[in-house]
Design goal:
The protein is α/β, with parallel strands linked by helices. The chain contains eleven helices and 20 strands. A hairpin with a 2-residue loop joins β3 and β4. α5 crosses α6. It starts with a strand and ends with a strand.
């Protein structure tokens, strides 16, 4: 493999990154998670076992791999402890020698989740973002406000309590007077999650140093993204976005390394488009085909179980993802889900204010005002889920892939035709 790879989602998340990271982890020595929180559920299928990970990098399923959680992540101690227990039950060893958390990683506290849910419940109709209620946004807010709790704070109990009290001073005013909810004390917080915070201590490390130690030894690194490019806080469909930068350039800031470390950027593309929660979705299908994709593709959130909105592939969205991430090659996933459809539509451009455009409008909520322009591609009936080589795919399937490559000017190097590791074609 290329020495150091980045795996990035190109749509609105749920592109199938978990499987791809799991596959590529076999060739990497170190796997790094650099942003996001526990709203990013990666479903991995290994044989007859299904494992869902939200925080721990997917590479943990491979023995002798070092997994790192960078400073750009916001980590929920309770979910972290639950994942450790689940992995141990599944026979996966998760020792501090195999998994390390940056001292600088910010922690999601119970009051962050309270605030997240209270805010969302107060919103009406189209104002709802569709947050998972995991406290991600409020934790990033505290980070920027410089009142966040960092992983290193768990090493000093007195300092930790003082920082929690300072964070709660403002939040309790909101809880009581704005949300008409109960106040909460630092002692209650520590009683609720104190044991989990103690379990974090052995896992704390200088992640930036670990990355460079690996580089000095000639080891390869895989950087694992969460969510998708169009959920990026700056470049996504704001305000219907996540709370961190999901683009490849955040790898360095979120893990503590320089840009020269990165050799290749892989963009994961689902063969159709899905979206969870609110926000504009130009190619959405509210019809039988949309239901077909949802049911056949198992489009229900790994974290929430919420059904995903489904639609045709959108090359305008993908074109911008290629530009924003400097994508070297794409990984095409869930191609098998399209089998059985006579005709496939692909959005190649939008009509916006009477003009045809190839990239999304750069104004807020611009995608709500575009009209997708489609080209039709012949579909295929064959079951492709057990095909092992590119040349053995039906001609119509290969034509679909070629159409995508020609429009994005990027090659599809990996093609996934099913959820299992074995259902993958490498070119």
């Amino acid at each position: 493999m290329e020495k150091n790879r980045v795996v990035i989602g190109t749509q609105w998340g749920d592109e199938g990154k978990g499987k791809i990271v799991d596959l590529l982890s076999e060739e990497a020595d170190v796997i790094v998670r650099f942003q996001g929180g526990a709203n990013a559920g990666h479903t991995l299928v290994v044989g007859d076992k299904k494992i869902i990970l939200h925080l721990v990098p997917s590479g943990i399923l491979h023995q002798n791999k070092l997994c790192l959680i960078g400073n750009g992540v916001v980590l929920d101690p309770e979910i972290f402890c639950e994942e450790l227990a689940e992995l141990e039950r599944s026979g996966v060893s998760v020792s501090p020698e195999r998994l390390k958390i940056s001292y600088k990683t910010h922690l999601i506290m119970p009051y962050h989740k309270m605030l997240d849910n209270l805010r969302e419940s107060k919103k009406k109709g189209s104002d709802k973002i569709g947050t998972t209620g995991r406290g991600i946004g409020p934790a990033y807010e505290d980070k920027v406000s410089r009142i966040g709790i960092r992983a290193c704070d768990v090493l000093d109990e007195q300092r930790l309590k003082q920082k929690i009290e300072r964070a709660l001073a403002e939040k309790n005013v909101l809880f009581k007077h704005y949300f008409d909810s109960k106040e909460i004390s630092a002692d209650e917080i520590l009683e609720k999650i104190g044991d989990c915070l103690k379990k974090l201590r052995p896992y704390l490390a200088d992640v930036s140093s670990e990355i460079y130690k690996a580089i000095d030894k000639g080891k390869s690194i895989l950087f694992e993204g969460a969510q998708g490019t169009h959920l990026d806080i700056d470049h996504g469909t704001y305000p219907f976005v996540t709370s961190s930068n999901t683009v490849a350039s955040n790898v360095c800031a979120g893990s503590g390394c320089g840009i020269a470390v990165i050799d290749e950027i892989l963009g994961v593309v689902k063969s159709y488009t899905t979206r969870v929660g609110g926000g504009p979705f130009p190619t959405e299908l509210n019809n039988e085909i949309g239901n077909y994709l949802q049911n056949k593709g198992g489009e229900f959130g790994a974290t929430t179980g919420r059904p995903r909105r489904c639609g045709w592939l959108d090359l305008v969205v993908l074109r911008e993802s290629v530009r924003l991430n400097n994508i070297s090659s794409i990984v095409l996933t869930k191609l098998d889900v399209l089998s059985g459809l006579d005709t496939l539509q692909i959005c190649t451009k939008y009509v916006y204010n009477g003009e045809e455009i190839l990239y999304p409008p750069q104004i807020e909520n611009g995608l709500a005002y575009v009209e997708p322009v489609y080209e039709s591609i012949k579909g295929w009936d064959e079951d492709i889920s057990n095909i092992k080589t590119y040349d053995n795919l039906p001609k119509a399937t290969r034509d679909y892939i070629t159409f995508i490559e020609d429009n994005l000017k990027v090659k599809a190097r990996i093609i996934s035709v099913g959820p299992e590791r074995s259902q993958t074609i490498f070119r």
